Backbone:
């Protein structure tokens, strides 16, 4: 709790912002690929995370680096459980919920969040012109040091990183994203800033391409995939 209080005093103002209030989404087969255009913005200062370990026998640690207004930094340790063994991003950062026109929940998913997006966007006219952070979080178990971040006044869309599909009927829906309680506490995010909602209309897809269309329109006799051959036995190296 002391860390959360310190972040509240000097850290970034993290909130969900909506790019547009309503979206129209095509359905391929029975699948709808949902990106509601809800962005995680870091206002006031950067959201910066430092991942480190001295050797491969030691799990990665994660620390929030707060850039102070008067210069210097403050380091706030986070629980290592938010990143897992392989640092793809922050685990279960957002809960995405889909409700039909009657208000019934018809789909939900927990989304991972990689701050180092390949296409972050400026969130305000006064935002810096460029972001200093890398464009991927790295999805392998070998790094000893990583920096994840959303620049001051910039935002990242977690849903576009997952390409998540749901089976939905044609019609009208409400899509809500909520930052999960773990991160709301770590970043001192208010309930209002931790939630955002978009109206969604699902329509029949027109004939054409796209990943969803390609999967839905595969010829009936074409196999989905072929099994790979067994990998050869290799020695385990204690010190690669």
Residues:
């Amino acid at each position: 709790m002391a860390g959360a209080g310190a972040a509240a005093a000097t850290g970034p103002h993290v909130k969900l912002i909506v790019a547009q209030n309503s979206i129209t989404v095509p359905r391929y087969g029975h699948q709808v690929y949902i990106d509601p255009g809800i962005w995680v913005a870091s206002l006031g200062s950067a959201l910066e995370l430092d991942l480190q370990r001295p050797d491969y026998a030691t799990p990665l640690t994660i620390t929030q680096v707060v850039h102070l207004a008067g210069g210097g930094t403050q380091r706030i340790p986070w629980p290592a459980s938010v990143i897992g063994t392989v640092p793809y991003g922050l685990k279960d950062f957002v809960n995405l919920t889909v409700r039909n026109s009657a208000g019934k929940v018809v789909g939900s998913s927990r989304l991972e969040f990689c701050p180092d997006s390949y296409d972050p966007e400026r969130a305000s006219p006064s935002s810096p012109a460029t972001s200093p952070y890398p464009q991927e979080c790295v999805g392998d178990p070998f790094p000893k040091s990583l920096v994840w971040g959303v620049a001051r006044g910039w935002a990242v869309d977690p849903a576009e990183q997952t390409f998540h599909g749901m089976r939905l009927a044609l019609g009208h829906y409400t899509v809500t994203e909520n930052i999960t309680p773990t991160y709301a506490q770590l970043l001192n995010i208010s309930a209002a800033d931790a939630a955002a909602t978009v109206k969604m209309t699902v329509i029949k897809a027109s004939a054409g391409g796209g990943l969803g269309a390609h999967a839905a329109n595969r010829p009936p006799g074409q196999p989905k995939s072929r099994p790979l051959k067994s990998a050869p036995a290799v020695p385990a190296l204690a010190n690669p």
